[in-house]
Structures are given as C-alpha cells and as structure tokens.
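Service request form, structural biology core

Requester: graduate student, group of Dr. S.
Request type: structure prediction, single chain
Budget code: on file
Notes: please return the result as structure tokens.

Sequence provided:
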Amino acid sequence: MTAVQDSTKRAIPDHVPPEMVRSIGLTEGPEFLAAPHAFMASLHDTHPPIFYSTSQHAQSAWMLTKYDDVCFVLTHPKIFTTLGATPFPRDPDNYFYMIPLEIEPPHHRRYRGMIDPMLARTVVGNLEGAIRQLANRLIDQFIDKGGCEFTTDFGRPLPVSVFLDLMGLPQQMRDTFVGWAIGLLHSQDRKTAENCMRETVAYLQQVIQEKTGTPDGGLLSAIVHGKPDGEPLSGQEIFGFTFFLFIAGLDTVFATLNNVFLWLARNPERRKEIIASPQNIERIVEELLRVFSVTFSGRTLTQDHEIRGLTLKKGDKVTCILPAANYDPATFANPHEVNFHRARKPVLAFGGGAHSCMGAHLARLEMKVCITEFLRRIPDFQVADGARIDYWPGGVVGPKTVPLSWLGAPP
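Core staff response, request fulfilled:
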C-alpha cells in the first residue's frame, strides 16, 4: 500500500459505510478535467445522491448533488458551519478568518452590512454604461484581427478591471493579481499555493496601510474605515475581510464567461437565438448560470445529522456540488437542455442562504453586457481550428484558454 493510499484509507471515519465511499476525482481527476460540467451533471446517473469522496489533494468529505439537500445545508448554518470551509494555507500563528464567509449568522451581518449596500442591484445597475464602454474598448482591440484569445483578451480583463475599480486597486497590477488567484485556487502544488499566499498577504497588508492614510470611495477603504455598531474593525478583521473579497472577486466571473463563450462558439444556432431575443436576456443569463456554475460550497457539521438515511457526524466535512445541484432532474426538467424559457427556479450559481455571493448582481450584469455586446459586434465566431481545450483543476471550474476565430472585419 502506498503512502497516499494509506493516508486516504485513514481519512475515512469508522461511521462511513464502505459502500458509500467513492473517489471521484472532483476538481482534479481525468474524467472531471475532460468535461467538468458533463461529469458533474452525470453524477445523478452514476452515484447515489449522497456519498463520501476521498481525494489526494483535498479533504475527504460527504458529497451532495441533490438540489433540495444542498439548499437545506446552505440555509441551516447552526448544523452546517462555514468555519474552516476554505482551503487556503494560513499561518496558524497569525490566523485570520475569511470574513464574512467564516462568520455565521447573526454576527456575519455586522460585516455584510458594510458592503452589501455598495453592491446592491440598484447601485450596481448604475455601472452598466461604463461596463458597456469597457466591453467595446476591449473588442476594438481585436475585432479586426479575425480572432482572439478570449480568456486574456476579454473574459479576464472585463470583470477583473471592474472589480479592481470597485475595490480601489491599481489596474496595472491586474495580471499579477490574477496570477496569485490562479496559484491559490488551481495549483495542485502546496509550495506554489503557499508562495502565492505569501505574496498576496504581503501586498494586501501594504495596501491596507495605504488606505488607512488615504481613504477613497472603494470597497477596501470602506472596510478599513468602517465602524459597524460604532466600533472600527480590528486589524485581523480588516485583513480577513479584504483577503476574502480579493480572492472571491478575481476568478469566478472570469471562469463563468470562459465556459459560456466556449459553448457559444460551439453553438451558432443558439447565438442567433440570443441575438434575436434581446428582451429575454435576463432569463438567458440565468439559464447559462445554471448550466455553467463554477464553484462549490463546503461546510462542517456542528452536530450529528441524518440525510437520506445516513448519519453524518459532528466534525464531518460536506461539499455541496453546486453545478451538479443545478442539473438535478427532480428540480429542473430536462436539465441537460439549455432552455432560455425555463420555468423560473432559483439557481445555485451563487450559493444560497446567509452566505450567498455578495457580488451576484454585479456578476449577472457583467454577463448580460458581455454577451450582448460581443454578439452585437461579432455575431459569428467559432473555436479556432486545432485548438485544444484544457480545464483548470481546483475549486473554480473553467477552461484555461478559449481561442476564437471569425472571418472578416465586422463594423
């Protein structure tokens, strides 16, 4: 028995029935990396609705794929806590919490109340004109070239640039920031992740000090100078809040756009349908969020709890496979069909419950603008001939590259 096999075997608690143990390679196995969303959607056919998965790089945990089960976990924080739910390598001698994710209700409202008003739907809606202008400036740079690398020419710079402006961070460091996020979210090498963590921590500590002396109108400055309940945050609170927002804002919309535009490039008839239905763009965005969700939600049990006849014990880890839940046939009829007229049902692309994504309104707006402006300017495109599509391993699902091509030079 190898060391890895031995450690994996030891990681399985005694109360887990042997028949419930699977090693599915979630986020890292060859079947997952070949076609992540198809793989996760197929779990409804190939696996029980709850099973225990082992992993070489991640903690072993119970896996949930059913929509109703996932919703229950996300909305019952007294049973399923987010404390310690994130995998980032933190210094135990200088530990900080990911705020507000790792703070449970009602205390998390102290922190979310500082930021939620700045990301409210009406406030974010005021950014639409500026985001459209940015989208067109980016398209202007490659439209006459007959092709682009979507990930670096459009999918990354648009949402990340918007995010950096909101945070009050320098645009010229955009690629450096994204590199740190990729190292933290996708690296399978712990040393690489630790190096990225160290560089990120050092930079954020520096920028927090700068914002302390020179406040501005950004989210980061609001955290540094905020006084919820009339009291300023501690240094560790400020750092944990800043770090969480920084990482959460750099990769998720970027990954979602990469998935969506890869699909658009392969489905010309659906592009025509979108172009012909501008009045339906909100439902189109919602359906694409369902089909191409990119994240997972981890929890830890605070007490014993039974799900579908299985007893989960206090301290057990649970992973809600949000993309799989969005393909649950018991909730979404014909879930593999991309249906822009689907009956309305909340999708789990942004999680749910008290810890639902703070940037959901902004993400929806960015998707709407990106899809409509790109298709308006470049309605006919495809994946470049001979291109190979590889996916990142790790906790945010998306292709590494999406090379596109088109004919002519549209106006």
